[in-house]
Amino acid sequence: MRTKIVAANWKMNLDINEAAEWLGAVSPQVESLPCEVFLFPSFVMLGDLMDMYEGEKILFGAQNCSDKEAGAYTGEVSAKQLASIGVDFVLAGHSERRQFFGETNAVVKDKMLQAVQHEITPVFCCGEPLTVREKNGQREFVKQQLEESLFLLPPAAISEIVIAYEPVWAIGTGLNATPEQAQEMHAYIRSLIAERFSKKTADEIQILYGGSCKATNARELFACADVDGGLIGGASLSADEFVQIVRDAQQ
Ligand code: PGA
Fold this sequence. Notes:
Elements: E1 5-9, H1 16-30, E2 36-40, H2 43-52, E3 58-62, H3 79-84, E4 89-92, H4 95-101, H5 105-117, E5 121-126, H6 130-134, H7 138-147, H8 155-158, E6 162-165, H9 179-196, H10 199-204, E7 206-210, H11 218-222, E8 229-232, H12 239-248
Parallel strand pairs: 1-2, 1-8, 2-3, 3-4, 4-5, 5-6, 6-7, 7-8
Helix pairs in contact: 1-2, 1-12, 7-9
The structure holds 2-phosphoglycolic acid.
């Protein structure tokens, strides 16, 4: 049985004071709940929040890392640097990085390679834009994203990875995928993993749903057989709503 994960992706929101307040409110309420909880703050406060946090439930991740090992890349943060402060996870291939910062499948693959080399678990994000969904091309689109990045990692690394299916048309729009749409794509992604690696790997890999997942729809999305939790953007900014979503992940 796969454990559910509820992950907060704060994006470029909250300052250190707001973040500390959030952590103080959320941590006592989620500590004893049986799912996994990840938090992706911005780089600037990642180390401080990790130092501040006294519990054991919340695992910390970065929203991005460089595709390069080290060097003259002003403004970038390497996986090695993240590992050196004890970061456990990193988002790779988030649609906002692809859209606003031109990240290709090849770059996403190199970022994940950096992460796994430094024992950081990538949370690999994939998902189709609206124009593709309108033409019913979502399967081919996501398959290509997987083939050009995730499937090029060393097979031994795959079983450690977390996938987030995030249809681009649902991110930050208030329009979530229906449970049927999410289930269909999650089952499809799992079938591709089974074909390429093994049924065991496919059965074990956790696949999160992201895209306007919130307290009013989390329960029905998380009830889908192949949905193993959520990557929560906007709704994670409110401590109360986030705690509610974590509660909704209890089966
Ligand atoms: P959203 O973002 O919940 O605000 O739609 C999700 C994400 O981008 O991970």
